[in-house]
Amino acid sequence: MNIKTVGVVGAGVMGIGVAQNLAQTGHDVILVDIKEEILDKAKQEIKNNIRFQSFFQRKDQPENLEEVLHRIEFSTNYKFLENVEFVIENVTEKWDTKKQVYALIDPICSADCIFAANTSAIPITRIASATKRADKVVGIHFMNPVPMKPMVEMIRGYHTSETTIEIAKKMLSQMGKECILVNDSPGFVSNRVLMLTINEAVFLLQDQVATAEDIDKIFKGCFGHKMGPLETADLIGLDTILFSIEVLYESFNDSKYRPCPLLKKMVDAGLYGRKNGKGFYAYQ
User: Which of 134, 198, 236, 247 has the fewest CB atoms found within 10 Å of its own CB?
Assistant: First the structure.
């Protein structure tokens, strides 16, 4: 099955990256969000990203900015998803919000359309329960920035069929991605480890054991990581980090997942990281 048209729901950081990656690999994209201003910002971000990426252009990506943008339709109307073959959902990591989105798109999309949840922590089986196509729901945890990351984590829900898995693998291959298939569990593999690491790094900062800069330097210098845990938190978004760790805390009822009070305070203060210019570091 050669997927040509893909719906992307949510035009935040991840949705922008997914839409851009799809358009750059020859797919037609319908990018849907609830407000025109969000979509206008998304279009500008995609333009900026492609211009920046042109310095490191891969041969399999079209060089013409307008050619890429022409493949993306920006809309606030979910009805435009009725003929897509594949939907990738990227809305905020809040279950009530995700549940409403799936209840909305499930009757709109064709019966054969596959839903891929781009989530960092919410179980895929729970997401599938909000639809009438549980066998056609799969998790695809993309990494940020999407166009530059060659690997994703794919999650098999309780009802996910082998056909859905194979189609999703083909879809990812078309996007230039390799996938690792894992079983369903809150946080999956990557974020059960990563969120604990970031949360504990915030505790270290809160307890004044070290500065943010020195915490990150230790991980980069001692372990060879390209980014430290607090730099990574800023890249992902502190609000997303908090939502994810809260999902893990709720799901496992284990105190090791308790969110650091400093993390909560920073999110309350609107310090989300790179997405709005200030987190553990300041960005211009």
Answer: 134
Torsion angle, alpha carbons of 69, 154, 82, 23, to 10: 10
Residue 255 annotated among the catalytic residues of the structure: no
Which residues, 6 or more positions from 150, have their beta carbon under 8 angstroms from its beta carbon?
176, 177, 178
pLDDT in tens, the chain (284 residues): 689 999 999 999 999 999 999 999 999 999 999 999 999 999 999 999 888 876 665 555 445 788 899 999 999 999 999 999 999 999 998 999 999 999 999 999 999 999 999 998 999 999 999 999 999 999 999 998 999 999 999 999 999 999 999 999 999 999 999 999 999 999 999 999 999 999 999 999 999 999 999 999 999 999 999 999 999 999 999 999 999 999 999 999 999 999 999 999 999 999 999 999 999 999 97
Catalytic residue among 90, 118, 141, 199: 141
CA separation for the pair 27, 21 (Å, rounded): 9
Is 48 noted as a catalytic residue in this protein? no
Give me 134's structure tokens.
Answer: 């549980």
Query: Which pTM does this prediction carry?
Result: 0.88
List, in order of start, the domains of the chain with CATH numbers. 5-183 (3.40.50.720), 192-268 (1.10.1040.50)
Marked catalytic residue, from 21, 118, 144, 191: 191
Beta strands 114-117 and 28-32 are unpaired
Residue of 89, 153, 231, 246 with catalytic role = 153
Point out the catalytic residue in the list 90, 118, 120, 144.
Answer: 120
Catalytic status, residue 231: no
